[in-house]
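Researcher: Good morning. I'm working through a list of sequences from a screen, and I'd like to move beyond sequence-only analysis. For each chain I'm collecting a predicted structure so we can compare shapes side by side. This is the next one on the list. No need for commentary yet; just the structure.
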Amino acid sequence: HSWSVWFRGTDSSGCLISRNPWGTDWNKGSKALFVRDGVLQYDAGWVGNPSTGVGVTDDAWHHAAVTFRADDDALAIYLDGQLHYAETFNTNAYDESETHNGGEAETGLFIGEANFSGGLSDLGKYDGLIDDVTMFTAALSAEDVALIASGAAFSGVVFAGEIDTEVPAETLRA
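Model: Good morning. C-alpha coordinates for this chain:
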Protein backbone atom coordinates (compact mmCIF):
# COMPACT_ATOMS: atom_id res chain seq x y z
CA HIS A 1 0.00 0.00 0.00
CA SER A 2 1.01 3.64 -0.30
CA TRP A 3 0.01 6.99 1.12
CA SER A 4 0.64 10.29 -0.62
CA VAL A 5 -0.03 13.77 0.80
CA TRP A 6 0.94 17.39 0.24
CA PHE A 7 1.30 19.60 3.32
CA ARG A 8 2.52 23.06 4.31
CA GLY A 9 3.04 24.69 7.68
CA THR A 10 5.25 25.73 10.54
CA ASP A 11 3.78 23.35 13.11
CA SER A 12 6.51 21.32 14.80
CA SER A 13 4.09 18.63 16.00
CA GLY A 14 0.87 17.39 14.39
CA CYS A 15 -0.64 14.39 12.67
CA LEU A 16 -1.18 14.47 8.90
CA ILE A 17 -2.96 11.11 8.42
CA SER A 18 -4.00 8.52 10.99
CA ARG A 19 -5.80 5.25 10.28
CA ASN A 20 -7.10 2.61 12.65
CA PRO A 21 -8.87 -0.09 10.63
CA TRP A 22 -10.69 -1.92 13.41
CA GLY A 23 -11.40 -2.03 17.10
CA THR A 24 -10.87 0.53 19.80
CA ASP A 25 -7.16 -0.06 20.40
CA TRP A 26 -4.13 1.16 18.45
CA ASN A 27 -3.24 -2.18 16.89
CA LYS A 28 -1.19 -3.98 14.27
CA GLY A 29 -3.14 -2.47 11.36
CA SER A 30 -2.97 1.10 12.66
CA LYS A 31 -0.77 3.66 10.93
CA ALA A 32 0.01 7.37 11.13
CA LEU A 33 2.07 9.91 9.19
CA PHE A 34 2.98 12.93 11.28
CA VAL A 35 5.36 15.75 12.12
CA ARG A 36 7.10 15.49 15.50
CA ASP A 37 9.94 17.71 16.65
CA GLY A 38 9.73 19.41 13.25
CA VAL A 39 10.51 16.30 11.17
CA LEU A 40 8.34 13.89 9.17
CA GLN A 41 7.78 10.50 10.84
CA TYR A 42 5.63 7.39 10.36
CA ASP A 43 4.10 4.96 12.85
CA ALA A 44 3.09 1.44 11.80
CA GLY A 45 0.87 0.21 14.60
CA TRP A 46 3.48 -0.18 17.30
CA VAL A 47 6.31 -1.82 15.46
CA GLY A 48 8.31 1.40 15.43
CA ASN A 49 8.21 4.92 14.09
CA PRO A 50 10.93 5.74 11.60
CA SER A 51 11.86 9.34 10.92
CA THR A 52 13.09 11.10 7.80
CA GLY A 53 15.28 13.35 9.91
CA VAL A 54 14.35 16.24 7.60
CA GLY A 55 12.77 19.44 8.89
CA VAL A 56 9.40 20.40 7.40
CA THR A 57 8.43 23.54 9.34
CA ASP A 58 9.54 26.11 6.73
CA ASP A 59 6.00 27.03 5.56
CA ALA A 60 6.76 25.59 2.10
CA TRP A 61 4.72 22.90 0.34
CA HIS A 62 6.13 19.41 0.86
CA HIS A 63 5.09 16.10 -0.64
CA ALA A 64 5.28 13.01 1.58
CA ALA A 65 4.80 9.42 0.47
CA VAL A 66 4.99 6.18 2.40
CA THR A 67 5.12 2.84 0.60
CA PHE A 68 4.98 -0.67 2.03
CA ARG A 69 5.36 -4.00 0.22
CA ALA A 70 3.96 -6.82 2.35
CA ASP A 71 5.69 -9.57 0.35
CA ASP A 72 9.14 -8.48 1.55
CA ASP A 73 8.26 -6.03 4.39
CA ALA A 74 9.91 -3.13 2.53
CA LEU A 75 8.98 0.24 4.01
CA ALA A 76 10.03 3.46 2.29
CA ILE A 77 9.41 7.08 3.24
CA TYR A 78 9.85 9.82 0.67
CA LEU A 79 9.90 13.57 1.16
CA ASP A 80 9.68 15.85 -1.87
CA GLY A 81 10.36 12.93 -4.20
CA GLN A 82 13.56 11.88 -2.40
CA LEU A 83 13.93 8.62 -0.50
CA HIS A 84 14.74 9.32 3.17
CA TYR A 85 14.04 5.95 4.78
CA ALA A 86 14.15 2.42 3.38
CA GLU A 87 14.25 -0.60 5.66
CA THR A 88 12.75 -4.01 6.20
CA PHE A 89 9.93 -3.32 8.60
CA ASN A 90 8.32 -6.48 9.94
CA THR A 91 4.76 -5.52 10.78
CA ASN A 92 4.06 -9.17 11.66
CA ALA A 93 6.45 -9.12 14.62
CA TYR A 94 3.55 -9.16 17.08
CA ASP A 95 0.40 -11.20 17.45
CA GLU A 96 -2.71 -9.82 15.73
CA SER A 97 -4.55 -9.48 19.05
CA GLU A 98 -1.88 -7.40 20.79
CA THR A 99 -2.43 -3.70 21.34
CA HIS A 100 -0.09 -0.89 22.26
CA ASN A 101 0.24 0.99 25.54
CA GLY A 102 -3.39 0.35 26.40
CA GLY A 103 -4.19 3.42 24.30
CA GLU A 104 -7.58 3.78 22.76
CA ALA A 105 -8.14 4.66 19.13
CA GLU A 106 -11.20 5.61 17.17
CA THR A 107 -11.84 3.42 14.16
CA GLY A 108 -11.50 5.23 10.86
CA LEU A 109 -9.33 7.45 8.75
CA PHE A 110 -8.43 10.84 10.21
CA ILE A 111 -6.81 13.67 8.27
CA GLY A 112 -5.11 16.43 10.21
CA GLU A 113 -5.24 14.76 13.61
CA ALA A 114 -4.31 11.55 15.42
CA ASN A 115 -7.01 9.11 16.46
CA PHE A 116 -4.99 7.54 19.29
CA SER A 117 -4.81 8.43 22.97
CA GLY A 118 -1.47 6.71 23.64
CA GLY A 119 1.91 7.37 22.04
CA LEU A 120 0.55 9.83 19.47
CA SER A 121 -1.61 11.81 21.88
CA ASP A 122 1.04 14.55 22.10
CA LEU A 123 0.63 15.33 18.41
CA GLY A 124 -2.78 16.91 18.34
CA LYS A 125 -4.12 18.51 15.20
CA TYR A 126 -1.78 19.60 12.42
CA ASP A 127 -1.81 23.39 12.25
CA GLY A 128 -1.17 23.90 8.55
CA LEU A 129 -2.49 23.00 5.13
CA ILE A 130 -3.05 19.44 3.87
CA ASP A 131 -3.93 18.65 0.27
CA ASP A 132 -4.30 15.75 -2.17
CA VAL A 133 -4.38 12.88 0.30
CA THR A 134 -4.32 9.66 -1.72
CA MET A 135 -4.14 6.03 -0.63
CA PHE A 136 -3.08 3.30 -3.04
CA THR A 137 -3.64 -0.44 -2.66
CA ALA A 138 -0.10 -1.20 -3.93
CA ALA A 139 3.35 0.16 -3.16
CA LEU A 140 4.22 2.98 -5.52
CA SER A 141 7.58 2.81 -7.25
CA ALA A 142 10.22 5.48 -6.67
CA GLU A 143 9.41 6.77 -10.16
CA ASP A 144 5.70 7.06 -9.32
CA VAL A 145 6.50 8.98 -6.13
CA ALA A 146 8.87 11.31 -7.98
CA LEU A 147 6.21 11.98 -10.61
CA ILE A 148 3.61 12.90 -7.99
CA ALA A 149 6.13 15.04 -6.08
CA SER A 150 7.00 16.88 -9.29
CA GLY A 151 3.43 18.16 -9.35
CA ALA A 152 2.38 16.11 -12.38
CA ALA A 153 -1.37 15.75 -12.59
CA PHE A 154 -2.96 12.34 -12.10
CA SER A 155 -4.65 12.62 -15.49
CA GLY A 156 -3.03 10.22 -17.93
CA VAL A 157 -0.57 8.92 -15.34
CA VAL A 158 -0.37 5.15 -14.97
CA PHE A 159 0.63 3.87 -11.53
CA ALA A 160 1.70 0.41 -10.43
CA GLY A 161 -1.39 0.17 -8.20
CA GLU A 162 -4.91 1.40 -8.08
CA ILE A 163 -6.15 4.27 -5.98
CA ASP A 164 -7.77 2.86 -2.85
CA THR A 165 -11.28 4.30 -3.05
CA GLU A 166 -12.89 1.83 -0.69
CA VAL A 167 -12.41 2.18 3.03
CA PRO A 168 -14.79 -0.50 4.38
CA ALA A 169 -16.45 0.10 7.73
CA GLU A 170 -14.49 3.29 8.25
CA THR A 171 -15.42 6.91 8.40
CA LEU A 172 -13.49 9.80 6.97
CA ARG A 173 -12.98 12.71 9.32
CA ALA A 174 -11.30 15.84 8.03
